[in-house]
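Q: Sequence in, structure out?
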Amino acid sequence: MLPASWTIRRLRDCTENKAVIVAFIAYNRGRYIEDVTFRNSLGPSALKSSHLTNCPLTDAGLAGLAQHHIHLESLIIQHCNEITTEGLASLLVDEPHLRSLGFYGCSRVDENILRALENSCPRLLKLFFTGCRISERVTDRFREKRPLLKVYR
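A: Exactly. Output:
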């Protein structure tokens, strides 16, 4: 296997090969995807989709993702347990093109994320979440406020 630093540098140099980026992240189970990875920008700035699983990523890494990848249309975050509601909400403010968002098993994300989504991500069409601290009551109230958004839990 190639050293992580070389592979991440090569991914930053890609211009359109999203499949390589996703394959690398999935193959390595996210272990090389850390805050510094996004601070330095992973992949092309025009990246439209990111699927992060089991990454030791924190809110600082999400801030880097938002700074370098403002054209995201799809974001899936799974079992990244250092990410908080505040960090995710901060990222969403800077992602106006987001159409699909999923967060699964992010134990530090709570129902306040739905309050943040009430006024952000105007193009969001699908929201998926499970394994977070979000009650059914708050979810129902959110569905009333954003009736065109499909919410799956």
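The first helix runs from residue 4 to 13.
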